[in-house]
Design goal:
The protein is an all-alpha fold and 152 residues long. The protein has one domain. The two termini are 22 Å apart.
Length: 152
């Protein structure tokens, strides 16, 4: 197995461990969590896109020009999806209130959990949007560099 493939697999395992660590306090405390799928998408997208943004030459995408162009165009609907889900979360909080997510219970524990949920979802959501907007530009620069200079 090549070094780039090993590194890619390592980073995917690392990404899923981080996603599990972020969601573990929520899923162990709440019976139902409506935003678990967007939350996982935000965490995985934020970590993966940021990794590709800064460590592109160490990824499998480094020398695959057609795949870079495909990823550039796939980022467009991805950004719209991420913004839509982030907006849906904010709208849900505004209309339904935090009690719709954490339920009623001990005020201190529920307030702390809601602060955690809101903070981590917005952190990873905004990071996913920003990195998904920046990555296509990085990939276009990489395509240009590979074609004209032979570097990534």
């Amino acid at each position: 197995m090549g070094k780039k493939l090993q590194l890619e697999l390592f980073f995917w395992v690392f990404t899923f461990i981080i996603a599990a660590a972020v969601l573990l306090p929520i899923l162990t405390t709440l019976n139902t969590y409506k935003f678990w799928l967007p939350n996982i998408v935000f965490v995985v997208t934020a970590i993966t896109m940021t990794r590709y943004l800064f460590l592109l030459k160490h990824t499998f995408l480094a020398q695959r020009q057609p795949l870079k162009v495909v990823v550039v165009f796939l980022c467009i609907p991805l950004v719209f999806y991420l913004i839509q889900e982030l907006n849906y979360f904010q709208t849900f909080l505004d209309e339904e209130g935090p009690e719709a997510i954490v339920g009623s219970g001990a005020y201190g524990a529920q307030a702390n959990l809601m602060t955690y949920i809101r903070s981590e979802l917005i952190l990873f959501g905004v990071a996913a949007v920003i990195s998904s907007v920046a990555l296509p530009f990085r990939l276009l620069v990489s395509v240009w560099r590979t074609r004209n200079r032979g570097t990534v």
